[in-house]
Amino acid sequence: MLVTEGAGRDSLRNRQLAGMLAAIAGGLNAAAFHAVGFFAANMTGNVSLLSDHLAIADLGLAGFFLLIVLSFVTGSALSTLLINDGRRRGNAAIYAHSILLEAIILAAVGIVELLRGGPPSVDLTVISLSFLMGLQNAVVTRISQARVRTTHVSGMLTDIGIGLGMLIDIARGTETSENAVEIRARLRLHIETVAAFSLGGVSGVVLYQLIGTGSLVVAAALLLAIGWRAVLQTRPSTAA
Asked: What does the alpha-carbon distance between residue 219 and residue 75 come to, in Å, rounded to a whole number?
């Protein structure tokens, strides 16, 4: 799931990757909004809010939304640098290492929040989660050659609409059916990803209501398990 890349990936690997990471991203995004009132992964909305506050000269909030956007971009850039360096060195586990880095940073944020006590810090929560969402999205984009996105759903909802439209035209006989199998496979991938993101969001809010910022540590543990399993898969077998 986090080892094979590009054309070597099949539909099942992409669906597994999308389902697991989209559920975690959806949980973190929804929990962050529930806790502090800001989205960590919705860059479309954050850029719109940045523009809105700039237009009314509310520079304080404009600066905050700019930090959110820059944090997302920085996470994506760092992930890309790590992946490029790992690929140059022939590191088959480089994508897994990026997910492990996400898990470590997320755990650190959760522990800091737990030690602080009281309501979560808006700045620490949103800025750090935006950084991690950018990091994760770069990982899945690179390994799947942009077939998978896990931290936002606008593009996937568009692709779902396109896929449904194409299948309707194929059924009507106005489009060739030669690509129908591929269209159905992509449609299934996108629908399952959106569903995972949504269900993850529900679970994230419920978990936050139960254990507060400890939910960040739980999410970090899940990412750690996913990343570490992939690292183990890249190690040569010691069997005779």
From this structure: 18
Q: What is the C-alpha separation between 25 and 29, in angstroms, rounded?
A: 6
| Mean pLDDT (whole number) for 139-154 | 83
Model pTM?
Answer: 0.88
**Rounded distance between C-alpha atoms, residue 40 and residue 80, angstroms:** 20
CA distances from 120 to 33, 128, 132, 188, 208 (A): 11, 12, 17, 37, 11
C-alpha–C-alpha distance, residues 17 and 14, integer Å = 5
* CB-based burial label for 176 (10 Å; 0-12, 13-18, 19+): exposed
Question: Which positions ≥6 away from 93 have C-beta within 8 Å?
Answer: 2, 3, 86, 230, 231, 234
Neighbours of 182 (CB within 10 A): 11
Q: Which of 91, 107, 103, 102 is nearest to 231 (CA)?
A: 91
Q: What value does the mean pLDDT take over residues 134-139?
A: 92
More confident residue, 186 or 51: 51
- Considering only CA atoms, which of 80, 78, 99 is closest in space to residue 2? 99
Q: Which helix (H) or strand (E) holds 117?
A: none
